[in-house]
Amino acid sequence: MTTANPAPPKGPLSPPDQALVARTIESRLSPGLVLRELQPLPGDASNRRYFRAVLAGGPPHSVILMQLAEPEGFKQSEEAVSGAMHQITELPFLNVLAHLGKAGVSVPTLHYYDHAAGLLYLEDFGDLTLAEAVRDADAPGLEARYRQAINILVQMQVKASSPADPGCLAFHRSFDVPLLMWEFDHFLEYGIVARQGKPMCSDDWTAIRGEFEKISEHLAGQPRVFTHRDYHSRNLMVDGLRLGVIDFQDALMGPATYDLASLLRDAYIALDEPLVDRLVNYYLDLLAEHRHVWTNREAFRRLFDLTSIQRNMKAAGRFVYIDRVKGNPKFLADIPRVLGYVKRNLQHYPELAVLRKHLTPYVPELQ
């Protein structure tokens, strides 16, 4: 079963009650902590808002407040989901947080969850994302950071995938053909039709969807592992020597290449091709150390590139959706980068000639 997007938020959230936050910190967190200041943080594309509570009497010297849009809003994902019907009785963020914590992944510690107020008090990883940390890094520093991100990815795929945990929501939803096709259709609806302001030719639409179905069936037929779903440079926080993982609430089971493609074909950081080649091989070497061996690396690379096409098209469509439906245009500038990846992969594989032929006239970045 696949669910579509939830309705956009009705309006901006009111900031949390500062007196309530102060009382909660004094009564529910470590003894001696006092709220000094509550600072709003830049938002992402979600319906949540974030604040930093600066504290006296620490450590900790600060905590992050995640403010939910509505108390029961967590029962519907902000992303489309697919899989067996499963009753959601727990905040997905907390459900997946606990699972990843047991797998040894560096996720924020939960200090307290005020269910009535819709406020989570979380460990503060700081403001430095991987994207910002590597922007001015030299080549060795850049590669070292990305190797660290791949170390965490492999740990997540190995330790969080097996044994299966029926209590974790991720094991009840998956990247099956309907969900992969929903994301492809999201690109057609927003990345093409909404973007150009007119419908596509029906013959092109039919041909393109036929090619999308072939890719979706191939990806859905791969062995599934725990998949973060948004594993990229803005969801990895550099906290000293540590790399913290956030924004994992939409996790599901999917092909091993999905999170790797999210990381290495990132909407926000363009890595040069020799580095991508080395990092893909580094990932495969690490998996082999855990006895997960891909004997045909050429086949894996093709799967990685097909996954990148799907992931990058979805991202481009999503960025237009966020602009048109949520009124947030800040991601539009990243569309040329992700569609540039698509162009490269479409040109690289002769078997994608039909898709390239019918798609290119509608997408300036592919021309």
From TrEMBL:
EC number(s)? 2.7.1.-
Q: Which UniProt keywords apply?
A: Transferase
Classification via SUPFAM superfamilies? Protein kinase-like (PK-like)
Highest taxon of source: Bacteria
Which residue range or ranges hold the Aminoglycoside phosphotransferase domain? 38-290
Q: Does the keyword Transferase apply?
A: yes
What is an example of a GO molecular function annotated in this UniProt entry?
transferase activity
Listed name of the protein = Putative Phosphotransferase
Native organism: Nitrospira lenta
Lineage of the organism:
Bacteria, Pseudomonadati, Nitrospirota, Nitrospiria, Nitrospirales
